[in-house]
Specification:
Number of strands: 9
Order of helices and strands: EEEHEHHHHHHHHHHHHHEEEEEH
Shape: globular
Helix content: 40-55%
Oligomer: single chain
Distance between the termini: 47 Å
Radius of gyration: 21 Å
């Protein structure tokens, strides 16, 4: 049986099923393993891990610990409350914005590639080339955030580093907008998001793209990238303090367990804390050569759980409202047995978005795409509800093909 336990309750002989943290936080080669020593427990504490999931069927059990199902039930109840808050209404339809978003995605990815190449060659970053792209991303988010963010959820593994930077920029811009920040702050945060991983230009490719777990020495090299990025960007006089702060501190954690400065809650800026949430969300939802990306819905649940120690709880909840419990582009299974792709969040109920249905699993065949508003009752364009997110790989479909019924 899977149970959630505090690290102080761990003993050698217990089987770790989940370390309850993102992959860049822990120092272990695997996420699941049998605890064999107190030294391993000490490494967890040192890494800032507060609780884990153990599997009592594969190792020692802890009788009084809550089961994972009990913990998840509490999380679901909290998510229902979070989902009830209103969201910002979009200005254009998804279909109208998709073509523009595709062009912006291509331009921004090429720009980040150039920035990385310049950084590797020791050249200064030219903000005159970066700012217009951030402005284009911001304008797309203002028109309809789901178009660009949904498109950026699909990443080519070979271009992950560049696409991740574009995604963090777009997500951070949307996050700032949803929190009512002023236009200049949003722009500077977007710059920070686009440039936050510049230091990875100095990480050797064989480490950055390693198809397996990193050694302690390799992990130490990767952990230098926030400082390296700051040192590169600070040489460009036009890079703002906000962008520099996001670059340097997007891996800091509220409990002081992050890097490079192990800042605690009171020391990390608001925007750096927001960037940390965005960075982890995009990283854990992406398919990488060394770990399988999880669904957006599951990632948001993880971030909610981790916000007890790693992230600002209020910011985590506001981010969930910003992107939606089921973000645009998410493939979902409906109660009716139909597969659908989310196309628009509901203004007051994030658990009942608009979706395009396109496949009947009970008949095992495609159906004519149709838009369904899950907030409406049967007979009024609704009458269905989401059961769970689904993996496109499992069904071998590209949900973005059905993002528009036109």
């Amino acid at each position: 049986m899977l149970k959630k336990v505090d690290v102080s309750q761990l003993k050698p002989g217990m089987y770790i099923h989940d370390l309850s943290c993102d992959w860049m936080t822990h120092p272990f080669l695997r996420n699941r393993f049998l605890l064999t020593s107190d030294e391993e427990i000490g490494k967890m504490i040192q890494a800032g891990i507060h609780d884990v999931v153990i599997d009592g069927s594969k190792g020692l059990d802890l009788g009084h610990a809550p089961t994972l199902d009990e913990v998840r039930q509490g999380t679901e109840e909290a998510l229902v409350a979070i989902a009830a808050a209103p969201v910002i209404v979009t200005r254009t339809t998804l279909a109208e914005e998709l073509k523009r978003a595709a062009v912006i995605r291509h331009q921004a990815t090429g720009l980040v590639r150039t920035v990385m190449q310049d950084a590797r060659l020791g050249k200064a970053i030219e903000l005159d080339n970066v700012s217009p792209v951030v402005q284009s991303i911001t304008e797309s988010i203002l028109r309809n955030p789901g178009a660009l963010m949904g498109m950026l959820r699909i990443k080519n593994k070979d271009d992950y580093t560049f696409l991740h930077s574009v995604s963090v920029c777009a997500l951070l811009v949307a996050f700032c907008r949803s929190r009512g920040m002023d236009a200049d702050t949003i722009h500077q945060a977007g710059l920070g998001g686009l440039l936050h991983d510049t230091g990875k230009a100095l990480v050797p490719d064989h480490i950055l793209n390693k198809p397996g777990p990193l050694t302690d020495e390799e992990f130490a090299i990767v952990k230098r990238h926030p400082r390296d990025g700051y040192d590169i960007l600070v040489k460009s006089p036009d890079v703002s303090a906000i962008a520099l702060d996001i670059t340097l501190h997007h891996h800091e954690r509220r409990d002081g367990g992050g890097y490079p400065d192990r800042q605690g809650e009171g020391a990390i800026s608001e925007l750096a804390q927001m960037a940390a949430i965005v960075d982890v969300y995009d990283a854990i939802t992406a398919e990488r050569c060394y770990h399988k990306g999880m669904s957006a819905a599951e990632a948001l649940r993880k971030i909610f759980d981790w916000s007890k120690f790693h992230f600002h709880p209020t910011y985590a909840q506001e981010f969930m409202r910003c992107v939606g419990i089921y973000p645009v582009g998410t493939m979902v299974m409906l109660e009716s047995g139909r597969l659908a792709v989310v196309i628009e969040p509901h203004e007051t109920n994030l658990l009942a978005p608009k979706v395009n249905v396109f496949f009947n699993t009970r008949r095992n065949g495609y159906i004519k795409p149709e838009t369904v508003d899950l907030s409406r009752p049967l007979g009024f364009g609704g009458g269905d509800k989401i059961v769970r997110p689904e993996s496109p790989e499992k069904w071998r479909v590209d949900p973005m093909r059905f993002i528009s019924v036109a």
